[in-house]
Design goal:
single chain, about 350 residues, alpha/beta, 2 domains, eight-stranded mixed sheet, about 20% strand, binds aspartic acid
């Protein structure tokens, strides 16, 4: 008979390096089946948990991830929500921060752990970082407080000893095992001899509210990075793209941009046409403060919204999520100023 006190975790395998093997002819890394992946981690049998798995029909390199994959993840988590204490999503590292950010919005009122992890080296390789990441992620997904509530009831990324809030995380290294950073929010937990949870930093959801899954995303969005010499006719063409609904504008420093009236006019006209423009800094750490310099003030006057200390991945997926809910530009403008899932620091 099944022991109902046993912690239970659903392992969802989407693809990525963790489950890849080297093609002997081309030398390139290719995905292989989940059972092979599990064969490489016999340690999993030593957990006193119920661990089940779900595999995407064909595992993908995360560079091929589309919002349809996020909807699929939402569906799998929602379908299995009552049967498991937590979820571990095995995902390629390249776009993991986008998926984590998207899920943090699409899984509204989440109160169970959804831990994304992967690895820089395939799990079959001797020096793999995959085993450690997988084993610790499962432990985190299963961890419960004395009152039975999950310790980490939010979407997060576990990588190389650090548990980070998913929508605060960015991939910063293509080589090092320590590949992710959350510059503007400290780790939720650190794994050493013990897993040390930072309880005051972890989300405290209302456990009585049911999960509200959202499936739709609208991808009529773009990231526009400023640089000295960026031509206005190029900006004009981008802002006049048919169907465009929102722009993440990557500015300088504390949210500064050129003061040229012709540039500001382009932004103002786009906003008047209903395009939402959010200001995020090209700096990885720190926050947008549009009232600090004259250059920022001009943007504010034109109707540009400050993205605070959000990541680009977070702003982009939040916009896709809000647009997917058929919100008006005005509603989106207001919702971009409110943290929906702890995604920025409101000072
Ligand atoms: N290209 C791989 C992916 O993102 C890289 C990785 O998993 O680390 O799927």
């Amino acid at each position: 008979m099944e022991n109902s006190n046993l912690s239970s975790v659903l392992l969802i395998y989407t693809g990525g390096t963790i489950g890849m093997i080297q093609n002997s002819e081309t030398g390139a890394l290719e995905s292989f089946k989940f059972d092979k992946l599990i064969e490489n981690v016999p340690e999993l049998k030593r957990f006193n948990y119920r661990i089940d798995s779900y595999q995407f029909s064909s595992p993908i390199d995360s560079s091929d991830i589309e919002p349809t994959a996020w909807s699929k993840l939402v569906q799998v988590i929602n379908d299995n929500y009552d049967s498991y204490d937590g979820f571990v999503v095995l995902h390629g590292t390249d776009t993991m921060a986008y998926t984590a950010s998207a899920l943090s919005f699409m899984l509204e009122d989440l109160h169970k752990p959804v831990v994304l992890t992967g690895s820089q080296l395939p799990i079959g390789m001797l020096r793999t970082d995959g085993k450690e990441n997988l084993i610790t992620s499962i432990e985190i997904a299963a961890a419960r407080n004395d009152d039975g509530t999950p310790v980490v009831p939010e979407v997060c990324i576990f990588f190389e000893n650090h548990l980070l809030r998913g929508n605060r995380t960015t991939k910063i290294n293509a080589e090092n095992f320590n590949a992710f950073r959350s510059y503007n929010y400290p780790p939720l937990a650190t794994a050493g001899i013990n897993i040390k949870y930072e309880r005051d930093r972890i989300a405290k959801p209302d456990f009585t509210k049911p999960l509200k899954p959202h499936y739709a995303c609208d991808t009529n969005v773009i990231v526009l990075t400023l640089f000295p010499g960026l031509q206005e006719n190029i900006i004009r063409n981008i802002l006049n793209t048919p169907g465009l609904r929102a722009v993440v504008l990557k500015t300088y420093g504390a949210g500064n941009a050129p003061q040229k009236p012709s540039f500001i006019k382009l932004l103002r006209e786009a906003i008047e046409r209903g395009i939402v423009i959010v200001n995020v800094s090209q700096c990885l750490a720190g926050t947008v403060q549009m009232r600090l310099y004259e250059t920022g003030l001009r943007l504010l006057d034109a109707g540009v919204i400050g993205g605070y200390d959000s990541t680009v991945e977070c702003l982009l997926t939040k916009l896709m999520f809000l647009l997917g809910q058929n919100k008006s530009s005005q509603e989106i403008t207001e919702l971009m100023k409110i943290p929906l899932a702890g995604e920025f620091t409101l000072e």
